[in-house]
## 1
Amino acid sequence: MSRVSISKVGTDVDAAFALAMERAGCVGVIKAGNRVVIKPNWNACAIAGSTKLAVVVAACRWAQAQGAGEVIVGEGPVPVGREKIESYLAAMGAHAALAAIGVRFVLFDDAEHVLFRDRENLPPEIGIAKLALECDVLINIPILKVHSCCLTTLCVKNLKGCLRPPDKMAFHRVGLLPAVVALNRLVPSQINVVDAIEAMEGDHNRGRLVPLGLLIASRDRVAADAVASALIGLPSGKVPLLKMAAEAGLGEHRVEKLEIAGEPLVPQRLEFPQDSLKRHYPDLDIQDDGACSACQAALMDGLYVAGGNRKVKKVAMGAKSKPAEDALVLGKCLSKHFATHAHVPGCPPDGTAVACALQGCVPEA
């Protein structure tokens, strides 16, 4: 039976992390001299929607105390460009904080990748960070957030940050959920911690932070995600990605089959992206039958940038959608409608271009 710990976090994050590790049975996983890689969710989009630096530092110190020979923090953020990535890390204070405790940061984009070709449910070729594959122990530490496609984006999805930048978008094209499951079959994840000190609702980068004051930990990545999802109102079986991961033999997604150590699991429902869209844009008619998460994310980015200047009332995306006559069409899947509709091409369409189109900048073809 997989064990998952739920631990309160006060002012001493290091102590809370150590307690979470003890409760989850993670003491002893790291052997003397091991190389340990810590994989946070440092997305380069918004510090608020990122694993807290204090949690990452606590993980580093704990790994060192366990006897690790080398501790590395590695991440491959959203492909937003080198300047934005460096600005994000500087604003967070990541480099200085890690250097102060003798830990180096590796941007996976610059590191060596191991290539995998022609694997089931994956793009024709992907590259996975060699450090993530060859380390002795990988500590996987996402922040607790909602997601438009996966419902929650936690430990299982966090390993997507080990990919080369182009591969991340390719996952959306071949089917995000099965691709993420296939990736997890290739990448080990010996210790899994969900930073639930604050959870993000509404949107996975620009949403609102809800204080929970918790760390969730397990050696079973699926189990950790299942408990974290249940914590925000998604009980067993309600998160398709976790059900798929469990069916692939990656862990246990049924909360009732888990041993919960520490604090009790007390659910509270957060607002999910679909709820947020309806609340913020009640006048917007969205046709998204068959739309992938990449197009949905581009729309959310576009809506955020367009703000109060939006003129478009109807949007269509996804191969199965049938656009209304006056709908703005998004993405390659509906290219057959480009001749008759205002549209933004691309797979996925660019969020900035979507914002422009929402403001009426795209002429009717």
## 2
Amino acid sequence: MTRILIIGGGIAGTSTALAVHKAGVDVTVFEAHPDGAADIGAFLTLASNGMLALAQLDADEAVARVGFPLTSMRVTGHTGDVLAVTPIGDQDDPLRHYRCIGRAELGAALRAEAKRRGIEIVHGKRLTGVDDGTVTFADGSTATGDLIVGADGLNSTVRGLIAPTNPRYAGQRVFYGYTTDAKPDHEPGRIEMLRGSGTAIGYAVSPAGETNWFCRVPDAELTPEEIAAGTPEQWRDALLPLVSTDATPAAEIIAATGRLMVTNASDLPEGLPWRAGRMLLLGDAAHAASPATGQGASMAMEDAVVLGKAVRDLGVTAEALDAYEELRRPRVEQNIANSARMTAARTSGAARPAPAPEIDIAAQLDWRRPV
């Protein structure tokens, strides 16, 4: 029986497992972390196209039980003037609404759904090498499959075996935080974008009153050592002077935040090879974009559906992988380019979680249609 091995048990890897399992292919997921710890961290915005992709995998209802919906966006300038209020996403179907959701919550929901369907997810398996169809892990164990899918994220080990490429720094530090102590102006289901004088900030308040926020700041790239050594107090003290003169809730939100983290906005260059031998890259491992478009998770879910359709219709063959890449590369690389432009604009409203450029994505994802 054909078998697919997926390296990475996060959002991309687990979504792909659901897709190829639905296509009737035996699949096993191998995750380096001993549990779901890799998902601990920031929240994300899952867009309507991501929810549409999950619907093709019969997983949209499971994901809709976590997080909370977003149906509109308000943009406010640094003077406090409201610049725009607009609907976002599919307004008619609650299962297609944008969702603000913790990365850990989303990962847990997808893994629970995969396990419910009998998909094996093996934790504590850190990849060290691939020899044709055999993978080797740090503990000395091996596994063999017909296709090895690298869904292991921005710093992909599998990509290092196909096309060693370091992520590019996109020019911004991205701060994330959560607080129940701030009481910013908000409406249920609305994401707020603040065009600060030196920052770009977004926040959404959950039904329980927790403010989830991010702040993008142009600055030098942080080293891994600086990120590891930094404390929430340190990052908060660095951020507050950048927002204190703006007539927005930014200073109030940041000052009230105890849980705060930072990362570098990074992406990958377009045109990277996605395949070599029996290996294939998918999600951020193949086409990471800076976070400005808010499309990372949704793009990975789209990848999963299209790969599932390709192997369903064409088997685990070069023809299937050609079809997959032909469909996916234009869309995801346009997203990389758009996100880079929006990141460079800094305060241009770039953080809006907007769908990627127009392609007939509904047709591309429709499970009933051939690939």
## 3
Amino acid sequence: MFENSWDLEQKEIEKNAKWAAPDLIRGSVEPTRRKPKFVAIKQIYVTSSPSRILNELDLLNDLRGCLSVCPLISAYRHTDQVVAVLPYFKHSDFREYFRKMTIPDMRIYFRSLFVALAAVHKQGILHRDIKPTNFLYEPSRRHGVLVDFGLAEREGTDSKPCLCQQHSMDRRRHINNSVAAANGPAAGYPKQDTRPSRRANRAGTRGFRAPEVLFKCTAQTTKIDIWSVGVILLTILSRRFPFFNSADDVEAMIEIATIFGSKRMKQGALLHGTVFETNIPTVGQQGFSLEKIILWSTCRTENDANGKDVSLSDEEKLAIRFLERCFDLDPNKRISAAEALEHPFLREKEAATEDEDEDEINMI
């Protein structure tokens, strides 16, 4: 039987039982028999290449002991199937609780998620598929676990130099000498394009892919996961799931451009040596502020009973400032997982910890 160190229910029982320890020593109370542990069985698709299967198991093995990350118990092969054995974590469906979450609830949720990401990124690993269904969260326990590393990879795998890594002066010089700069914006694309095709890893779930993935950046970093977390936060703040619902990469870029504006999207594209052009009327130059997006999404655009404009609370404004850091179109300026844990939106209050220590001392 596997000793599941992640069994939160058992930890609570042991915590409550420690005050009854003297009775157990005297033999007046019979020790309760531990319940059997459940595990999760992940059957890896036969269509997955052997190298991808090995990569996932290898990464899971390296991440053993990392906080809020699902550990690998074992793996075995049965005929042509590869099966991974993982601990089972009790969790709720994201769609059942996300609309009820308050700002304090969001803090707890995202702190748990960023603790996991910080551990993963510290190992130099990109998860590549951050979304609500891959973060098993139980609101009653206020704890979540990051799962599914099927698309994960080590940072730098198949990476090639990209303009986003160069100095701004070198990047500007390259852009000024490009064909796009010489010919100017053009509708459509060349019928016989002689330029070499650009290849980059596009793995991920639609609606959660970062702009640099859509622009086919060849030097993607752990910052792509931060953008995906930002999409989850936007989903919760707006009470809309899914928030982005594009069918392909082009639609995904248009959705992002509708919020951020074509001007910023053009700048984001140039970071990676690509060009963004659109003549869609609904995509403006400046886009919209995230505050307006939240107000519109939560139907708070009307005035209140006193005729005053409805505005966001201070807590919501702080959440949006944090969201803006996750949604920086420049991955080099986007907040990291470690930095996110120190942001005022997620940072734990020391006073609360001191109060808890005092309470425990008083109980003793």
